[in-house]
Design a protein that fits this description.
Blueprint lengths: L6 H8 L3 H16 L6 E2 L12 E10 L5 E9 L7 H14 L3 E4 L6 E4 L5 E7 H9 L7 H12 L4 E8 L2
Parallel strand pairs: 1-3
Antiparallel strand pairs: 2-3, 3-7, 4-5, 5-6, 6-7
Helix pairs in contact: 4-5
């Protein structure tokens, strides 16, 4: 692995004009800090998913704020014989309860949510139509790729759930 502040690099920086040298040092310092304080990351495998459901779209979404973390947003569908999103939600609820997750309040009225038994993961889920309504109302934010997948499924009358995983409270 190459280090940024070797004697050769520092000597080369000294030969550059001052603004260029400062810019080079700033870039080197930023690159050296990348990953130093890695945000807490929650993967889809950290959650619980009903065995009948399958992932249609998955996006890792990071919040670089004060308490940086990366969560996962998913759009999931079910078997072809399932004709309603409410049936998918019931399957997911059974799986969450079977895994001993604790039910908690969702971010929006139409969401169901739970925390993992160790309290490290927060999972929320809602039907695709309900999630889109909550986003339109300004109650939730979702990555563009997730919104696109939800809109496409709802437009085609395909039952889907939106699932969001983040670090526990």
């Amino acid at each position: 692995m190459r280090r940024f502040f070797t004697s050769a690099n520092v000597a080369a920086v000294h030969r550059l004009p001052l603004p260029t040298a400062l810019a080079a040092l700033l870039v080197a310092a930023l690159l050296a800090g990348c990953g130093a304080a890695a945000p807490h990351r929650v993967e889809p495998s950290d959650g619980v998913l009903a065995p009948e459901l399958h992932v249609v779209r998955s996006v890792v979404d990071c919040d670089p704020g004060k308490n940086a973390y990366c969560g996962s947003d998913l759009v999931v569908g079910g078997p072809s014989f399932v004709i309603s999103s409410d049936a998918l939600r019931a399957m997911q609820t059974r799986a969450v309860k079977a895994a001993d997750w604790k039910g908690v309040s969702g971010q929006a009225r139409t969401q169901l949510a739970a925390t993992s038994p160790n309290g490290k993961v927060y999972l929320s889920y809602a039907t695709g139509a309900d999630e889109l309504a909550s986003v339109r109302a300004g109650l939730l934010k979702r990555p563009p790729a997730i919104l696109h997948a939800l809109r496409a499924a709802v437009h085609r009358h395909r039952p889907v759930l939106s699932i969001s995983l983040s670090p526990g409270p």
